[in-house]
Amino acid sequence: xxxxxxxxxxxxYVNDEPHIGHAYTTIAADVLTRYNxxxxxxxxxxxxxxxxxxxxxxxxxxxxxxPKQYCDSIVTRFLxxxxxxxxxxxxFIRTTEERHKDVVRHILQxxxxxxxxxxxxxxxxxxxxxxxxxxxxxxxxxxxxDCDRPVSKITExxxxxxxxxxxxxxxxYIRDNPDFIRPEHRKNEVLGYLQQPLGDLCxxxxxxxxSWGIELPFDKDYVCYVWFxxxxxxxxxxxxxxxxxxxxxxxxxxxxxxxxxxxxxHAVYWxxxxxxxxxxxPKTIFAHGxxxxxxxxxxxxxxxxxxxxxxxxxxxxxxFRYFLMREMxxxxxxxxxxxxxxxxxxxxxxxxxxxxxxxxxxMISSYTDGMVPTPSASETGDKEIEKAASSLxxxxxxxxxxxKLNVAIEEILQVxxxxxxxxxxxxxxxxYKNGNRERLNTVLYTASEGLRIAGxxxxxVMPYKIEEFAGIFNLKVEELISEAASDWGWMRAATKIEAxxxxxxxxxxxxxxxxxxxxxxxxEEVAIIDFGDFQKLKxxxxxxxxxxxxxxxxxxLKLQIDLGTETRQIVAGIAQFYQPDALVGRSIVxxxxxxxxxIRGIESQGMLLAAKDGNRLVLVSVDGEIAPGSGIx
Length: 633
Ligand code: MSP
Fold this sequence. Notes:
Number of strands: 26
Strand content: 15-25%
Bound molecules: 5'-O-[(L-methionyl)-sulphamoyl]adenosine
Number of helices: 22
CATH architecture of the domain at 337-486: Orthogonal Bundle
Shape: globular
Largest sheet: 7 strands, parallel
Distance between the termini: 44 Å
CATH class of the domain at 337-486: Mainly Alpha
Helix content: 40-55%
CATH superfamily of the domain at 337-486: Isoleucyl-tRNA Synthetase, Domain 1
């Protein structure tokens, strides 16, 4: 494994405000960078803005501004957003900067001199919104196949890059380098695209039609096609023309993180451009999926675009970062809804992680004078925790290398849940009450060391919150994320613990993030109950000891159930799904304190739980042997 990591995001068009799609890629790149650093690699993280082209020129004109003036006004929105979302990029590149224009001119001239670029006549259908030409057969109902807007027929002289000649080479390269295009299904998509003949690429626009671009060094009547210009940013920033050592240091480790819609430009145009210029290809191009809003594509015209800063304002930067990273399987589409957000926050952050942190620190503060105690001989359960926590960093590192951020986070949360169960089963409050000091110390040390290790590994996802978390252990965040701190036992006994920090207060009612049009509506539908309400519901495990059909009612079964301390009768509408005999002896889950009711004249003292999906119904059961009457919480 290499010890360097260079990651790029697409450079964003500045004719729009940052939205959740931009935020997702940028946060994902940030999280990957921070993980790589945490695991000891040196990293370089680049993002930036794409500032040339027709759309930009048109938008600026519509606002009565010059294009550069317009770019300057919008670029600050990106810069501010990334600052607010705690993005730790090492460089920010704008394609209007001289360092970039120099590289574009240099490559154009080089390819022109080497006969890789020629002048020809072009006739095609041009979409000014997507800034690309289409052939007649590409059009859908006469419109642009990408944006469905009208196209215009254009014939003009232009410059072409001899891309077609690289087709076979590219197919071979992609096949021989399995890490080049990821995930696998995107690689197959590109190979499918390359089964059609690959034409040459028109890389110029006549100034008479578009003036806002980088002038071709060999013909002042033309500017460079915006994609040819933009892709080169990836080599400008690490110093292709200006700093050979820096370029050689980073370029071989380059990973381009992109959205799936810009796969062809990255996985076909870009490798051919590099090959022609004699520059090695990037290590990996990883295309992620799209964020949908309640399963629909987001678009300005539908008014359902999610603005990242409003979400971060409503819920906090770190919960927002956490949700995006935990919820999306990188490579597939994912749907945003406020309900999913609140659900994820409350279950993972408030209940699992936040709760563990607050109960462990409170116990240390009440039982051991606020000091991490010295552990004694460990038992099987303690060793299980030590093993799970010690192997966690290795597992997370391997998953991060595979871009499986959501799985990596889930691994951490599994350990958090294990720790919560460990506390439950070791009952430190009883150990304290019974004066079992040695055991109490071991349990509290084990729980707090496990907590520290799990929290440390969440740092790349939630840097602000984990800084606060480090404070609980009286540590600076730099100490917590230092390499040595990954070892079990790094935390010394007698470390002073600060109790009382509530890292993730429960969201009781979904706050409104303005601008989240349909998510707002959804939030009104979510009935959030507080924990007190939930506690009123007494769910119990019950064993079925008798079952029979209810005469004259083909849907109903009458069950006799053992609740540990008593036997009850319940009536349930499950006759079409279960034979009475098959139920006897099974453990089921019932709501035991439901007001008794008469169903078809038969008393039902409780309700069983079942899951229903269309025409299927299955009973809710427990995952293992447990005594009838056991409570469920
Ligand atoms: N300027 C080009 C990129 C040039 S890179 C050399 C561009 N810019 S963009 O601003 O339109 O889009 C940037 C990225 O945002 C793309 O990767 C695109 O996939 C991503 N997203 C736009 N909407 C998105 C979602 N709804 N969800 C996830 N990402 C999406 O393309």
